[in-house]
Design goal:
Keywords: Glycoprotein, Secreted, Signal. This protein is an all-beta fold. It has no helices and 26 strands. Strand 4 and strand 5 form a beta hairpin.
Length: 269
């Protein structure tokens, strides 16, 4: 699409296609999404994967921590937590109940929660002792706590890092390559090393990112009878002439192999 890509590069195309450059070819595949919740919201604008920050229940989007009754009523109360919808059918004890309900259900006030010396109203969300990695909610006198969901990481275990005050691990940047390793012959070249891979007309250099860049030499000088020197890329037109399998120096005369009455001379021009 008019954009050069380095070997091994990864990027995302429109339509949630994950692409990579391998051996001069572009390989694309549909991104796979791991959704660790039961009622995820559709992917936001410009995104590819559904999100568990909120819930989609019966076609209605619910914010994180929302307490609601489903469309069929029946005095059932549901709560949205980390993309999961949990529903309870309240019983109506005297003086308190799980949630405010219509007159034909329970005529009562929702029960508050007493938790570690604090009182929380029904539906209140709070952190556990200042730990932002744990979220609690008061539901009809009961406190339910859950860990903050962490995103899936695409790096190996030894590159993951949990920083101070962080709830979820992140991927460390991979170490900078020390050189270029060639699998075909097991030779490792340092960054900046220039070598020929066997063809004298091709030179390769080890790049700083560990990749190998190669380029062929174009021979500009041409003549009809050049001398070809082993191990040298371009033929030599200034050293003499090669004629019928023999090499002659400049200004040397010799009989023609095709007609003994003809005399030939090697002229370097």
């Amino acid at each position: 699409r008019g954009i050069p890509r380095e070997p091994g590069a990864h990027w995302t195309e429109l339509g949630c296609q994950s692409c990579t450059c391998q051996g001069g070819r572009v390989l694309c595949d549909t991104m796979s999404c791991s959704v660790p919740c039961s009622h995820p919201l559709p992917a936001p604008a410009g995104g590819c994967c559904p999100t568990c920050t909120g819930c989609l229940h019966e076609g209605v989007a619910r914010a994180e921590g929302d307490v609601f009754s489903p469309s069929d009523g029946n005095c059932t109360v549901c709560v949205c937590l980390a993309g999961n919808v949990s529903c309870l059918s309240p019983e109506c004890p005297p003086g308190s109940c799980l949630s405010p309900s219509p007159a034909d259900c329970c005529s009562c006030n929702p029960e508050k929660c007493n938790f570690r010396g604090h009182t929380y109203a029904h539906g209140a969300r709070f952190s556990l002792d200042g730990d932002d990695c744990t979220t609690c909610v008061c539901q009809g006198g009961e406190v339910e706590c859950s860990f903050t969901p962490c995103p899936m990481l695409d790096c190996p275990q030894h590159q993951r890092h949990l920083g101070p005050g962080q709830c979820c691990s992140t991927c460390r940047d991979p170490p900078a390559p020390a050189g270029c390793f060639l699998d075909d012959n097991g030779v490792e070249f340092p960054v900046g090393q220039i070598w020929s891979p066997g063809d004298p007309c091709e030179l390769c250099i080890c790049q700083a990112d560990g990749s190998v860049s190669c380029q062929r030499t174009d021979c500009v000088e041409t003549c009809p009878y050049p001398i070809r020197i082993p191990g040298q890329c371009c033929p030599d037109c200034s050293a003499g002439c090669t004629y019928m399998g023999r090499t002659f120096s400049n200004n040397e005369t010799f009989p023609s192999a095709l007609d003994p009455c003809l005399s030939c001379i090697c002229l370097v021009r």
